[in-house]
Amino acid sequence: MNDFQPMRTSEEATADRPWLASLTGVQDANTITLDLTKFVNGVHYEAGTPFQPRNVIKSGLPLGKITATGLYAPYSGPTSEIQTVTVTGTPTGGTYTLTWSGQTTAAIAYNATAAQVKTALENLSNIEAGDLTVTGGPHPGTAMSVTFGGQFMGDDVAAMTASGASLTGGSTPGVTIGTSTAGGAGTATDGTQIFAGHLATESLFAPGSTKTSGALLWFGEVFADKCPIPFDPTDIEAFAPGVNIHYR
Questions:
Q1: CB under 8 Å to 49, separation ≥6 — which residues?
Q2: Over 80: is that where the pLDDT of 14 sits?
Q3: Which of 27-41, 170-184, 214-228, 233-247 has the weakest average pLDDT?
């Protein structure tokens, strides 16, 4: 099932795109076809709602071109490591800490949001703004995913550890850490290991569709740390023929 949508105007393409560092090149975006079977719910797109039933692929997504079909899919270069943080035991108060590579965060509330956990980690001396994203939660009980990008893109980074000794209430409260995706060099061989550009605008598609249209930004300036999928531009500069994107 294909779901092709009319292209949006250039005005719409430049609105509400925090990853765009410059509007230069937006009007030069190429019309492409996306292979929706390669996109993952919660990672590359957000599922629709009863009020807006179409799924929404995030603008700014890095893309590669599948050699065999000519369709576009998420760029499959170096892999970001994803670690999970879960507060267990239904605590009703208190705090916990996270330690990464010898550095320990300030106290984090038992019911912290993803944004608060991100801030706590970015305040460590060995992590810079844009090096990671945090999604999921809030605590307790719901896992948060910490994705390492920026200077750590493509790295098999050290595992975080946690201390929940200050958590209170509930039943034996604690904090568990897991690794859902190990970081490492890209292994794709289908063409998506070659960076082609960014999705210039949101693309909407109906559930069950296998293809939809999109717009490829291959010329312009981009804030790498504000893209929906973290990546290190220095990892792709040698593997992006025809792409003229500068990163800030």
A1: none
A2: no
A3: 233-247
Locate 248 and state its tokens.
């800030």
Nearest Cα neighbor of 197 from 154, 234, 246, 129 is 246
Give the pair of three-digit tokens for residue 95.
Answer: 């705090």
Interval 130-169: pLDDT, tens:
888 898 888 898 999 998 987 887 889 999 999 999 999 9
pTM across the whole model: 0.61
Q: Is residue 150 a contact partner of residue 156, using CB atoms and an 8 Å limit?
A: no
Question: Which helix (H) or strand (E) is 115 found in, with range?
Answer: helix 114-122
Which tokens go with 232?
């290190």
What one-letter code names the amino acid at 44? H
Length of the chain: 248
Closest CA to 235 of 200, 199, 198, 195: 195
The structure tokens 């719910």 sit at 41
The secondary structure of 218-242, three-state, reads: CEEEECHHHCCCCCCHHHCHHHCCC
> pLDDT tens digits, residue range 120-138?
999 999 999 888 889 888 8
Q: Which residues contact 86 (CB under 8 A, 6 or more apart)?
A: 139, 141, 142, 143, 144, 175, 176, 178
Owner of token pair 């981009």: 222
- Beta strands in the chain, from DSSP E residues, in sequence order: 20-22, 30-35, 45-46, 55-57, 62-65, 72-74, 81-88, 93-100, 103-104, 108-109, 132-136, 144-148, 161-163, 167-168, 174-181, 195-199, 203-205, 211-217, 219-222, 244-247
